[in-house]
Specification:
The protein has 230 residues and is mainly α. It has nine helices and two strands, in the order αααααααββαα. The longest helix has 20 residues.
Length: 230
Amino acid sequence: MALSRGVAPTVSLGLRHHQYDQGLGIPPLQLGDGEVTSAQTAIPLRQASMANLWLNHQLKRIRNTERHAIDTSVDTLQMLDILLSSITAMMGQDASLRHLVQLAVYLRTRGDKVDFVKLDRWLQKLHVTRAAALQGSFLITAMGFEPDELPFVHSSEPRAEFLLDYALSHGQHEYESWHLSDTKPLFIRNNPKALWRRVRRCTRYMRYAPLETISYLFLSMARSIAEVEE
């Protein structure tokens, strides 16, 4: 599971740190011989983008305004990018353990430098307040976070445990990307099962970020059609 979810280095590092804990009972062979460092567990920080053109414009305005502000907070901008990346990954493959680990690590190591008042205002402007709260609820459910460690979570999402269990219990075949491809002139091959899985997945998260979820679904369809035209 660790390999399929992209968190093998993080799991390996955690096992090495706790291999001698009483009652853990990890066979030495499972630890492997390679040395794993914390640098290997990090996901490169990238600027997030949004599928909805208007919201993406709002995001660019937020970045531009913050960079020229007197009290610029780079850590808060990075926190916003991590949250948005986790939300986008959730729409594509349900809850992403890899992105949740990145969010958890950032909160524990840099959370004291984040301006959560600014962050909360930005999330409201981008209409992803509930989607961000869902990411925080995943951390509360699975990683032992306390609500007071997550100021952007104003109320824990009751379906977080169900959605996280669903994401972790389904195999990678569930996340096969839907695409169109041309097989013969004037003929297009479709993958209806993957298409309906994507539609159902977006429907699960519609209530948390309606504008972004609908835009994500249509953008993914448009990209697939564009690939056929090329």
